[in-house]
Specification:
Belongs to the ABC transporter superfamily. ABCA family. CPR flippase (TC 3.A.1.211) subfamily. The chain has about 950 residues and is α/β, with parallel strands linked by helices. It has five domains: about 40 residues, no CATH class; about 230 residues, no CATH class; about 210 residues, no CATH class; about 250 residues, Rossmann fold (3-Layer(aba) Sandwich), CATH 3.40.50; about 70 residues, ACT-like. Chain A, domain 2 (Alpha-Beta Plaits, 2-Layer Sandwich), CATH 3.30.70. The strands form five sheets. Strands 3, 4, 5, 6, 7, 8, 9, 10, 11 and 12 form a ten-stranded mixed β-sheet that branches. It has a six-stranded mixed β-sheet with strand order 18-19-20-15-21-22, with helices on both faces. A four-stranded antiparallel β-sheet has the order 14-13-16-17. β1 and β2 form a beta hairpin. α2 runs parallel beside α13 and α5 crosses α9. The protein is elongated, with a radius of gyration of 47 Å. The two termini are about 50 Å apart.
Length: about 950
Amino acid sequence: MADLPNVPNAPSSFWTQANALLRKNLTFQASSLSKRSIKTNIRLVLSPFFLCLLLVLIQSLVDNELDKPSNRCGCTCVDTDGNGQCERRCGIEYSTLDQGFTCPITHPPAWPPLLQIPKEQFRAVRTESTSYQDLPDGSCKRTGSCPATMLITGNNQTFGQSVAGNMFPTPSNINFSDILFSIADVALGSESRTEYTNFLDAAFFSNTPLDLLQSQCASNSQFSVPLQLGSATIQQDVRCIQTLSLWRNSSSEINDELYKGYRRGNPERQINEIVAAYDFVNSNENLFNVTIWYNSTYKNNTGNQPLALTRVARSVNLVTESCLFSCFKLLLIVASNSYLQFLLGPATKLLFEFVKEMPKPETRLRLDFSSLLGPLFFTWVIFQLFPVILTSLIYEKQFRLKIMMKMHGLGDGPYWMISYAYFLAISTMYMICFVVFGSGVGLKFFTLNDYSIQFVFYFLYINLQVSLAFLVADVFSNTKTATVVGYMMVFGTGLLGAFLFQFFLEDSSFPRAGIIAMELYPGFALYRGLYEFSQYSFAGNYMGTDGMRWKDLNDSKNGMSEVMIIIAVEWLIVLGVAYYVDQVFSSGRDPLFFFRRHQKNLSSSFRKPSLQRQGSKVFVQIEKQDVEEEREKVEQLLLESTTTHAIISHNLRKIYPGRDGNPEKFAVRNLSLALSQGECFGMLGPNGAGKTSFINMMIGLTKPTSGSAYVQGLDILTDMNRIYTSMGVCPQHDLLWGTLTGREHLLFYGRLKNLKGDSLLNAVEESLKSVNLFYGGVADKQARKYSGGMKRRLSVAISLIGDPKVVYMDEPSTGLDPASRNMLWNVVKRAKQNRAIILTTHSMEEAEHLCDRLGIFVDGSLQCVGNPKELKARYGGSYVFTMTTPPDHEQEVENLVRNLSPNANKIYQISGTQKFELPKQEIRIADVFEAVEKAKSRFTVQAWGIADTTLEDVFIKVARGAQTFNTLS
């Protein structure tokens, strides 16, 4: 059988470790895509494609619905020449109100100009907060007689009031044949809400009458006028409303009154109580200078944006022919009706006949459902990467694969760099495929918005998502729990974003600080970015323009730049916190490790700890001479400047704190032990004796409660990362990737041990041959298909590859058949020639076959130490005599034994079978045979035998003695 490779190697470099981990990850991913979790991978890859295709299908159905004749411009067959031949004509005059929306309007209808009048219940009256007594009493709201109020001010009160008095003339007889001209010289208003366009003025299609503003209204002041709309005639009711023109002493009083009269609430109540206000400033007969306040507080149905149109033109015409707009004020220095009438008399008029919308071409309703549903669907698509990354990280943590890699030399730097880059690369490829596919099927969400903005946003977010997965992975220890929580976060984030967060975004009254606070949660930050993309793509598709461009990020209403900044800053913070938490909680480093300098290498000299006995308790226990000698040997070695010993443990202790009312558990009690190079030390003991706890401390899985230990001169408390480079471990339970083959495992760990090229391939081949995993294609089978014995052999091969100087084997032969166990023993015997090996086992045969020295542990304490022959001689200085007879001859057998040895000790008796311990110094084997032959002549001897003490007898004797002592003490 071939020997295991013994190739001395220097510790692997940063880039060598990174290369090893990258190759392993790529191999693992390839295996996963082809065989492991294939359903999960298919779901992950196809879910964005499925959602994109679903959106395309929904869009197609919506487009088909919108293209139906009922939703297009109406058409009819018109007989133009009376010969019975009809000509198909389309237009708004042949359309219903639903169809008219899409029709071309080359000649928009003319509408009388209107004032915006507050509704009856919202008009200005006297209140406790209003000190002006010229306002009407609130009782008018009960009778429905509240007037519409206008405020007047200026430097010349006589002039201002005189001009204001001309604003609302009494109408003359109305000419119904030319209705627009007839009502052009009167002031009409409406309580109706305006729309985005004025092709069909809402005032003429509501149940609310038009308001005729007069200084005084007659008792019967409601009438109806006909209005021509295309081929249809509309009868419009008109009612008279009294108008008050109230003087105020200054513009600041008007501002104060307008502010107090502004009502907030739902969009219907979000208006001002005053119709308009005029400041004539320094106007007189030779100078006309006017500032106008008008009502622009109406909102659209969502309460977000002011409507595109406000009824301003009529309020301006009341005093001027042309104007200059500035926010809520209009500065006017031109002629006006009332001013002309003031100068030239009431017969002078400057008529404002009508207002018209701009002509429009034929349009069709375009609703992009990929933009409407995109924030919800695409949040699910992108955020679902989070639980995938999270479970991958926790998988390595749950099955201790991460610590296994670390114990074989993988540093934190290469692990973080490669793992982060690996998940980032997968996320990037996933997002590229997602955007390319979405664009390929024609979703406006992707095609209208600038791809560079999309790239920056998605790239920033997936970095944050990967960093967040590393941070959350420190919280969970089970992949199933993490998977459930992860997908709950995915679906919960999408639903909360669509049905809660979006309402806050669209509510202009919601504090911006609250929005920013919610965006600190990465899921809502993702939703906000997708929401911004959707808004721009929807508007771009509707208006036939582009979506989001870089210049749009300067818009105060665009939240994309805000979200990008939040994600970028949060990414750096989360990544730093994740690394810190991993170092403190997973790697067990001091919480202030970044403030401390790195310890220097002590490979040439040991630290010299205090030789006083450590611990919080004093154990009343008299140590055996061999254990005391081992302790003195350790203390002497610690005082020397150099040593050839590979492992030195000094007063090492591990105490697990008590829980649920149970006392604390002493797993290891003040263990002192020294192993030289080339020595195999066997640790024996019953279950729970502390063997695995000791190994876990030596390999860095747990921190000792007190004491110290050194491996190749390096302290396990401060230099564990450097110890890992020369250490091999075969843990009690096989820590393997189920989808990697045996060869792939050894290639990975060989690279971590700095094996390269042919040396690596040869070492892997020899390792596989040595543990009988090379032939029959076993080496290239996935580890999950291995039997328990094959996995143990692979674990042993992993622990020995790369020539580690110290190897820990925790019950390496568990589950092996006799032939495989014997083969494994030969491997270990050859391997121990140039390295120190600590081995735990329950097999006395294995311990005697492999170990140069043995130590028996009971209740965390080392009870004895020495080579197998010494222990058997020390604790087994007797023969074991066994005889089986009929039960009625038991006394005669005991008399026979007492004659051979007065100090014989009976250790077993049942149904005629008895066992005795005979001190070796008191008997001769020949005397035993002679006595048995004589006894056969006196009574029936069914069976008998005499045997030397075995290692198992020693183990049982030492264990029982120690347990009895501990019970009594």
